[in-house]
Amino acid sequence: MTDVAVPNTTRKDWASDQEVRWCPGCGDYSILAAMQMLLPELGVRRENTVFVSGIGCAARFPYYMSTYGMHSIHGRAPAIATGLAVTRPDLDVWVVSGDGDALSIGGNHLIHAMRRNVNLTILLFNNQIYGLTKGQYSPTSEQGKVTKSTPFGSLEAPFNPVSVALGAEASFVARTHDMDRKHMQEMFRRAHAHRGAALVEIYQNCNVFNDGAFSQISGRDQRAEMLIPLEHGQPIRFGADGGRGVAMSTDGHLQLVDVAEAGEAALLVHDETREDPGLAFALSRLARGPFEPTPIGVFRDVVRPEYGAGMAQQILDAQERKGPGDLATLLASGGTWTVS
Amino acid sequence: MSTVIPRQTKELDRVVVRFAGDSGDGMQLTGSQFTTVSSLFGNDTATLPDFPAEIRAPAGTLAGVSAFQVHISDHDILTPGDAPNVLVAMNPAALRANIGLMDAGGTVIVNVDAFDERSLEKAGYTANPLEDDSLTGYTVYEVPMTSLTMEVGKQVGVKPRDAERSKNFFALGLVSWLYSRPVEPTLEWIATRFAGKDAVGEVNTKAFKAGYHFGETAELFESNYQVRPAPAEAGTYTNVTGNTALAWGLIAAAQLAKLPLFLGSYPITPASDILHELSKQKHFGVRTLQAEDEIAGIGSAIGAAFGGALGVTTTSGPGLDLKSESLGLAVNLELPLVVVDIQRGGPSTGLPTKTEQSDLLHAMYGRHGESPVPIIAARTPADCFDAAIEAVRIAVTYRTPVILLSDGYLANGSEPWRVPDVADLPAIDVTFATEPNHTADDGSLEFWPYKRDPETGARPWAVPGTPGLEHRIGGLEKAHGSGNVSYDTGNHERMSHERADKIAGIAKGIPAVEVDDPDGVGGAEVLLLGWGSTYGAIAAGARRVRARGLAVAHVHLVHLNPFPANLGDVLRSYRTVLVPETNLGQLVRLVRAEFLVDAQGIAKMQGLPFHAAEIEAAVLQALGEDIAEPGITARGNAEGVTS
Ligand code: SF4
């Protein structure tokens, strides 16, 4: 297959014939479009691309792609995708998940896929609500959130998906949002190119059950002041004219500063490849929620041995040592005796 | 040393030896080496390891007693023996925990050094059983195993504490002498096993020899015994445990099907040894993933199956609970998958190290919705090999998850196995889809992932990487044929039937049940119907009944879902159908419901396999015969009467 050029494709080639059934106005549409428009640029083949999902609104994603796909059960997509990725290193395996699917019922699978560094590209559609079950709070909903299951306000502190991923040893972690196709595509492209587990958190608007959850930061008029773009090797700054930035205070905290006051030299220079995840973690905690200036972009991109490759290598090493397995030898390996 | 008095060697046709001691005393090692030597010598053997769930229960207590029972014989045997003829008890707790298993007249060899006041107290004895009359009726040999072993240690120059640990080798030496076992294989085994640990190897060797010589020279024993080799079919033999045989069966099946083997598994007793064994065999291309939990174990196997591998997950009862939802997914995806359940005592954590057959109904019905899954059960340790191949054959042929049931008794028990010729193993044909299989209304070619094979009802297996066959599958109901999501009510009914019919249709491809009835099917009045690990006890029980000149038939099921096509007719040919199971009656419910026969269950729920005598007694009762008969005790030696 490698000797044949990857055929040229367009967005249409990546769309299945199934009618898309998300609520009109749902942020999922723009994520789907971003993906279908990006894939023709990635030089990949439909037959070698697999989308695996769990349960939730986001999890319908594979049905709308003309690739191989599996819409599995709640929370289990990372585990299923792990089995696929380690046995089929020739495939591009994408996991599509939501905040409930990935961080509640499937939390265990998510963290272990990242810890093992399985070659998966994981898209976490975070809308901070349960959409498919019609509006209960999720593990990323803010404390105090009033929903059908929390009429007096949620008592729970939310997860910060980027912090969780960094804590789970993820080798690639990024954040983007559904209002900026170009940025989404750039994050997807980077995540896809990464070898190992890559997690992209996508702030996604659920206009039916949690409309405007991110409007304070991702609206066209808010972005400049409320989104902090992370760019590798660049001082971290934001604001209409780049007038604000992120600096480290003398006590080791990250803080937002006016560049004019603090001076350019004081700004933190973003380094995605830093071994120590501490600064990336601090950046992930900069905003307490999507109502304060929030970093987006690649938080971390480090090289770590990929799990499936390690598994394959152990097989090659064993075959080198012992030769390919011979069944008759195996069956006799416990010692034998002969009756004649 | 005193002069060796030549003593007579008596011939025995069979003997059951039970080694019992503290968990730390190495009884499993001692017992399995005694078994190996006996197998090498040519005896037929059957074993029953019996150990506590706690890794380190307090030393010297009843909870910490670990035992290994082995039955060796000069003829074909089927069980590890009902009652031990010889009990080796390394301490008072071992004696107290096991003496009840013995028949009067049995031989007890105790490590007399361990019978001090403190140890007696820990075992719950108020008086020393060696000094009161509680062991009257047994032949008791008091052997100072600890002190003699320490003496050996002193010669080698190791610390007393370390030397003391070799006392199981003294016991092994003594019993090896008692039953005239060749010593070389054990000496070689010690040399290999403790290679590089010179002092340990040396003490073990010397302790073993000391035990052997003690038997020879001490005038305690008036004779020793010989159990001649069992006549066996010509061939090459090895000793396997059920878990090893099962792991090898999976490797063999993967080769036969030409599929890469993937195991996703979470450690659980008593299934973990399959994970261990497969993890060792990387040069066969086996991939093993120790998953984060039971769900990921099966999930990863499903993912591997989607990609065209042979996906397997292994577990025990509690893990099967956790896998239920994913099994349902596999039913809907119609992908090949093998789920191995090594059953143990339940419910909940239950009895992790004890055997039970209580997951049959779970395997059958333990999922929501109409969710049929084929079920296979292995019946002896070596049969786990064939059962694994059969489970794989059904999984890949019918594109379905299959549950393979074994249990703790088969998993850890071992038996001699005539190693099959690899060339004789059955072929397993697997074809992946490579072409579109449907013409759309507009004449274009399409791939329909749920268009079934008219013969088997299986859907095509089209793996990612195949151009033109891109498709999506999932847990939502599928439209028949196209596989698109469908909420259509009529379609759901049709698909429910298609899934059920596919599994029921497997019966067409499995052999009719064999009926072991010397008088021909329907000849006897009573039929014993069994499945799984009760095979040995039921077959041995039937032998005992026949040895009395009475008739009984035996049918043993490998396929539990679907049942073999002729099973109903066979059951209806007998006036009485008895179904012994180590559960409260699970197969019996299934056959009563399926065939409307008045089958009766025989239940045992002690975490232990049946004794042949219990089966015999049940049949005699059904026949209205008197159980007690001269020469045959309830747990006696009748198994040897036929060979
Ligand atoms: S419920 Fe919310 S997330 Fe789900 S499809 Fe509708 S808008 Fe989108």
Notes on the structure:
The complex is a heterodimer of chains A (about 350) and B (about 650). Chain A is of the alpha/beta class and about 350 residues long. Chain A folds into 2 domains: about 10-230 and about 270-310, 3-Layer(aba) Sandwich (Rossmann fold); about 235-270, no CATH class. Helices cover about 30% and strands about 20% of the residues of chain A. In chain A, the strands form 2 sheets. Chain A has an 8-stranded mixed sheet, with helices on both faces. Chain A has a 3-stranded antiparallel sheet with strand order 8-9-10. In chain A, a hairpin with a 5-residue loop joins strand 8 and strand 9. In chain A, helix 1 (about 30-40) packs across helix 6 and helix 3 (about 100-105) crosses helix 4. Chain A is globular and about 90 Å long. In chain A, about 50% of the residues are buried. The model of chain A has no long low-confidence stretch (mean pLDDT about 95). By secondary structure, chain B is of the alpha/beta class. Chain B has 4 domains: about 10-225, Pyruvate-ferredoxin oxidoreductase, PFOR, domain III (Pyruvate-ferredoxin Oxidoreductase, domain 3, 3-Layer(aba) Sandwich); about 240-425, Thiamin diphosphate (ThDP)-binding fold, Pyr/PP domains (Rossmann fold, 3-Layer(aba) Sandwich), CATH 3.40.50; about 430-510, no CATH class; about 515-640, Rossmann fold. Helix content of chain B is about 35%, strand content about 20%. In chain B, the strands form 6 sheets. Chain B has a 7-stranded mixed sheet, with helices on both faces. A 6-stranded mixed sheet of chain B has the order 3-4-2-5-6-7, with helices on both faces. In chain B, helix 1 runs parallel beside helix 6 and helix 11 packs parallel to helix 12. Chain B is globular and about 95 Å long. Chain B starts with 8 loop residues before the first strand and ends in a 20-residue tail after the last helix. The model of chain B is unreliable at about 1-5 and about 630-643 (pLDDT under 50). Chains A and B meet through strand 1, strand 2, helix 2, helix 4 and helix 11 of A and helix 1, strand 9, helix 9, helix 11 and helix 12 of B. The complex binds iron/sulfur cluster. Iron/sulfur cluster binds near residues 23 and 131 of chain A.
